[in-house]
């Protein structure tokens, strides 16, 4: 294993770094703070960074409407409410996702029905087909870690069975399936600007849709009261209709968040290039001649690989723990989905969903799976170190 004292960089620092806010975003945020108008509705629509980001995102994703909110979790919850999900309704969702996703279902007092995932971290379409029943109202599809599921088959099944799809595209801003943006397939699409995502707003989210009625409902639900309902780039009589019919839950985006996210949207294409280069290097180097397996890409998917997932074939749980310990000691922040009782992405740890989900295939897929976010500024020397640390640890633990 490379010795820390011969390194010219601090691995823990490098691998945990975040993208800075572009200078124009910092300047705009400072200007907003000087004016005191951080509240999106304290200015008119054309001066509101939140409204302008909504307009930018709608154009970027290729949909009619977008609504800035406080997080992707808020966007998921508003989507379920706007779609009319009621207590006791069944919502299908993949068994491999982040805990915020089943949480949105449980908080809306609906019943989560989990669908198996594959070893490639995608929703298993055959299991989805099996689990659709006459009372399935909604599919909440997570593009977990940006791995897109078979959108052709899923859209067809949803249309055939009258299932409304909500896309959890938290990790998928800028990704495409057959050239169409993730988040634009469902009734709604939900994105995250939390710092681990491709556009770093600290926190923040966006709900997109092509449907006027869903957008009008979501705007009201998110906290637009009185004349504020008209401070968005949508004019619809439904805003006033729902303004008096729906409850409000304030999860609005601030102008500050929007100001720091806006200049990051045009940077996504360039970042995607860098990530794809990093990823192909890591995939090639790590899978060469040992027991590490990367997921199979799909020919229709254009992923932006800002994280890696890989399996270590044949390792026992003890070996997985030993592997994680070794790489963490070397400053490499890899986690294993199936190790310990605190991983927010393993269904065993979602005690609030009631009965433990019965997902043998997903359990097996996650058992030896590792996960690491990639910083966008990693250089060749950092990647070489990462490869060496992982390969060394696999070798050493493999002979124990
Ligand atoms: C797959 C997935 N969905 C939803 C979310 C929730 O996003 P937010 O933190 O913006 O609520 C996350 C957060 O990391 C996520 O990983």
Structure in words:
- The protein contains 14 helices and 14 strands.
- Helices cover 38% and strands 14% of the residues.
- The chain has helices spanning 11-15, 23-35, 49-61, 72-82, 100-107, 125-131, 151-161, 212-221, 238-243, 255-261, 268-287, 317-329, 360-367, 380-398, and strands at 65-69, 90-94, 111-115, 136-142, 164-168, 176-177, 180-181, 188-192, 205-209, 292-293, 301-302, 307-312, 335-336, 369-373.
- With 400 residues, it is of the alpha/beta class.
- Strands 1-9-8-5-4-2-3 form a 7-stranded mixed beta sheet, with helices on both faces. Strands 10-12-14-13 form a 4-stranded antiparallel beta sheet. A 3-stranded antiparallel beta sheet has the order 7-6-11, with no helix packed on it.
- It has 2 domains: 4-17 and 268-398, Aspartate Aminotransferase, domain 1; 23-266, Aspartate Aminotransferase, domain 2 (3-Layer(aba) Sandwich).
- Pyridoxal-5'-phosphate (PLP) binds at residues 71-73, 97-98, 100-101, 142, 144, 168, 170-171, 192, 194, 205.
